[in-house]
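Q: Got a minute? One more chain.
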Amino acid sequence: MNSTERTSKATGKGSEMSALIAAQPGPLRDALQALLGMMPQIEIVYRVSNVSSMQRTVAEHHPALVLLDTNLSDKVSQVVKMIQTNGSGSQCLVLADNVQQQQLAQSAGADAALLKGFPADKLFETIWTLITEQETKSKAEPRTKQ
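A: Always. Here it is, folded:
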């Protein structure tokens, strides 16, 4: 499936912060969707289940935050580098299956990398920190959509 799914909140704030969940459909993706849905800063959540859809979504929508499950690709470092170098300004959180993937993600430039099995409060805190950093960046130099 090469499509991108989208969920939006109807808040009418005008300025929309978005997130992208790059993970196969299932419990992890559903839990991430629920968590992001509780965060008032996140207006739009995109969901993709393959790397090509992720690349297209990042390029077209410039999400503030990308949550990347390492099960999506065995080339974690290449995917992270693509996110970090495409000019979108996206923060990247990698959810890794093992320490090797976590280290690869961090060395490739991921803003954060957590080992799966993390406590929910650690995930929430990490996402909150990344969103706050993104808000600070956005206020300092507003992004322009192309």
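A: The radius of gyration is 14 Å.
Q: Perfect, thanks.
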